[in-house]
Amino acid sequence: MTEILGVPVAVLSGQLMLGVINGAFYALLSLGLAVIFGLLKIINFAHGAMYMLGAMCTVLIFDAFGVNYWVALFVAPVIVGCFGILLEYFLLRRIAGQDHIYSLLLTFGIALILQGVLTNIYGVSGLRYSMPEMFRGGMNLGFMFLPYYRAWVIVAALLVCFATWFMIEKTRLGSYLRAGTEDSQLMQGFGINVPLLISLTYGFGVMLAAFAGALAAPIYSVSPVMGSNILIVVFAVVVIGGMGSIAGAVITGLMMGVVEGFTKVFYPEGSAAVIFLVMVVVLLIRPSGLFGKEA
Amino acid sequence: MTITKKLLTSAIASAMFVGAAQAEISDNTVKIGYLADMSGTYRDLAGPNGQTALEMAIADFGGTVNGAKIEVVSADDRNSPDSASSTARRWVENENVDLIAGLVASSVTIAVSNILEENDKLGIVSGSAASSITNEHCTPNHIHYVYDTYPLANGTASAVVKEGGKSWFILTADYAFGHALEGDVTRVVEENGGEVMQAVRHPFPTSDFSSFILQAQSSGADVVALANAGADTTNAITTAGEFGLTQSGQTLAALLLFLTDVHALGAQSAQGIQLTTGWYWNMNDETRAWSDRFMEKTGVRPTMVHAGIYSSTMQYLNAVKATGSDAAQTVRKQMMDTPINDMFAKNGFIREDGRMVHDMYLAQVKTPEESKSEWDLYDIVRTIPGDEAYRPLSESKCKLVTQN
């Protein structure tokens, strides 16, 4: 069998596949962050908490009402998205236009409160959520066993990423949005309700995080602390991709998933740090990120 | 030179000791600091409910000892040795804390035990796993009460090897506890004629284990052993299930599983897993009675750590009462001289290295059909006698043992 650095190619292909799957989660999460930062200039430190809320919500509405996976995949992000809109309306709006650090601190505070309150109620051991019946099992690809659910994760995440990019870059609504954040007074003058647009955008960004959470519920341990670790990684992904760049966030998310996956094979001890290493290198060479516009 | 120095210090120490040994409780208060993970990945197995167990012990004891009041302070160690050290230092140096209880992450315990030794205060470790805590990191100032990695390896690993699992792939949490467990497991596997093919160290904590599970599958080992804890273990078990690890003929062995982990996984996903535990709530009438009281207060069944906190606090208070002192060495000696017979342990005893030796249990997770209630999760398969379970003193690297 052919080998690269002592590792069989078959094993590497499997790791490549898993890297893409994890990258799909990073892409979804960093996309939401990039939308919120790119359009609203809010550094949303509550993003990990929103991811957690999406997953928790999926489990809780299943336990309480028996809501099945497919419905939850739609309903959980909507519920969390509405919560995001309320946050924007009652809190974030009050500090609009201030230095970025204020939105960072405010959202970080919200994240800690959410995490703390839910930890007190549900503990940290994780809530049970079983895999939907139709996704049980998997297929043998020759070089690896691919669970059906992981395949679905790639499809779902990439579809949502593409749809988001298309909506923001190619549709009329997207152009209003971009214009509204560029010069809100002018847009108000044209009769566009800019504050509403901003609330909806924040809500949408949050929905993307919650969608990632709902998608993660069957495969990761669902607990109030699940968002805190992933948040920092996702921020690093956004920084590498270039703050605010939508396509950059998606492509970088996938790339970093793969980089992390390979690190887990060649030097597992370093897999938690490798993304930050890439971040340092990218910032030194291209401070605006791989896909960012030069400032 | 060193001998004179040692003599001198011990002379001074004993002179001071005579002063302190007037059998007094300092500032007429026994102050217990409960230091544990209150919000992170080990919260449920110790955490706020551990403090409840501690307070239950104080209430059952009567709330005072020889007329001195018993006070409790608590703090979150955030699983960080730095944060825990600064709390411990403040407690023992400025706030007259006599005993630090709880102590979960092994890295935290090792850091705190050094501070206890410097200040000659006592610590009772109920949550940590690393066997190095009473081996190379032993001090005359702490007691390791509930379990450690040595019996975990002895119980689970030897059972699995004897069932035919000869080649092992170990997935290790990359910090003190994981390393200790990996070492102890490797020893047991090799002693029983097995072989460790590969050990992979993953960052702590890790949420996605798919890459490691795939490596484990392609290694072709008979047994995939998880030398990690808490959410890392439950995540790894869930992922192993998803990737069909056991269907392809490999055995999954979780070396450290707490009741709260198994409860989170549920009998459906955890059924059949073998594990070693220091205590289980549903063993006999005594354990059940205490667990019912615990559940009334907390809403959940206690883990071995919760029960150990209750038992060790009781032992500590009894020793303070018997000696009329809260000086660390006086109390520790009294605790070592008193066998432990309560709902937690029968004929348990504390060795000179600080290890509390008691029977351990090899358990198997019940199937959903066997499990009669939400927390009815274990079958006790075998009792491992304390002497057989723990590292014998003859193999000890502890400075308190080798000096003699």
Automatic annotation (TrEMBL), chain A:
Membrane topology category: Multi-pass membrane protein
Pfam families, per the entry: BPD_transp_2
Keyword RNA-binding among UniProt keywords: no
UniProt keyword annotation of Cell membrane present: yes
Keyword annotations of the record: Amino-acid transport, Cell membrane, Membrane, Transmembrane, Transmembrane helix, Transport
A GO MF label: transmembrane transporter activity
Subcellular location, record wording: Cell inner membrane
Major site of localization recorded for this protein: membrane
GO biological process, one term: amino acid transport
CDD domains associated with the record: TM_PBP1_LivH_like
PANTHER family, per the entry: ABC TRANSPORTER ATP-BINDING PROTEIN, BRANCHED-CHAIN AMINO ACID TRANSPORT SYSTEM PERMEASE PROTEIN LIVH
Name the record gives this protein: Probable transmembrane ABC transporter protein
Organism: Marinobacter algicola DG893
